[in-house]
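tl;dr need the bound structure. longer version: we got a ligand (magnesium ion) that a collaborator sent over and nobodys looked at where it sits. i said id run it. heres the input, straight from their email, havent touched it
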Amino acid sequence: MIPRRVTVLGATGSIGTSTLEVLARHPERYRVHALTAHRSREALLAQCHVHRPALAVLDTEGDAAWLRARLAEAGLATEVRAGSDALVEVAEAAEVDTVMAAIVGAAGLLPTLAAVRAGKRVLLANKEALVMSGALFMDAVARHGATLLPIDSEHNAIYQCLPVEHRGGLARHGVTQLLLTASGGPFRGWTASELAAVTPEQACAHPNWSMGRKISVDSATLMNKGLELIEACWLFDARPDQVQVVVHPQSVIHSMAAYSDGSVLAQLGNPDMRTPIAYGLAWPERIEAGVEALDLFQVARLDFEPADETAFPCLRLAREAMAAGGTAPAVLNAANEVAVEAFLAGRLGFTGIGELVARVREARPVEAVRDLETVLAADALARQAAHDWLARP
Ligand code: NAD
Ligand code: MG
């Protein structure tokens, strides 16, 4: 077996480390070509020792020089580069077959799109990239023959519940609805007034999943489910009204597809991202992921309830942005990124996140997306509007 060569964008994050764990279980199948991180140089150094990539990428030249020196001391041959151009280079490199897109936020858009345009197998964890650029992204997948495999657990579940060839709209395949499950986050059942005093520590303590801080806050506000709704529309060619959010606190069913004959197909498993990661890496085969088998007797029961869009307005804001189309999802995403950063820094209250996103959506016009520049401009202007709102007297 000729090993596949893999680039992991965002290698030091929650998804990145889980990806490396799965890769390390199958050395005969995979070789790590490049690992990237933003500022976590120590963590990246440790990963270079274990995985021996040909290339490592950090954001600044200073951090890259530090890593280069440590690797030279250790006698490792990994080449170190810095900056966003280097991210694009390792995503589109000819030697690479598979790219794990696990950078968080808009920063992942250009390298992820570069991997798509180079026709790679792209494992998409970085949902913000798809939310921002929707149609452009999916057009590029089709035009360049990339293989796009969703890693977000819900979308991975839906992918597994759909026919292998599911392009051309859901109706063509008898699918009537996608049921997107949500844990409900750490504040399920809380009222808007109880939510006002939530701290970053509380928001980052997710009941079922251990994740990066940004997505943890998104899960707590339900913006994560909103971004996932948009993601599902693009990935599966669905209208927003064909995606129903189902709060399922046990996070055992990772999502479902409902068919016209009354069948509902679900994918179940322990909440562990190594399952969708292994699925994406090996597709259409299956490989061992290190995940414990699901014990249904231990799970005992599965509960379902509707989402509370009054206490958690971010879900509604996302659905509205998808319905508005054009640059609206990019504006929503940019405002949310600024809001989450401000919340984590103690400069904005928890309920301020939804308020800030709503204000920025009102302030910024919705434009048709002609090209990537339109998207990047909408993103930049929305961030500016969000910062202006935060700095208001
Ligand atoms: P994380 O914060 O743990 O890791 C992010 C990674 O990206 C790190 O390696 C970091 O160094 C790098 N990074 C951050 N900012 C960067 C920048 N400006 N430029 C270049 N690199 C940068 O995040 P995560 O939880 O692993 O999530 C990654 C992505 O996967 C997100 O888009 C998230 O929504 C998605 N996702 C995560 C989970 C999960 O369980 N963690 C589940 C589904 C989807
Ligand atoms: Mg998810």
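gonna send this back to them w/ a short note. DSSP finds 17 helices and eleven strands in the chain.
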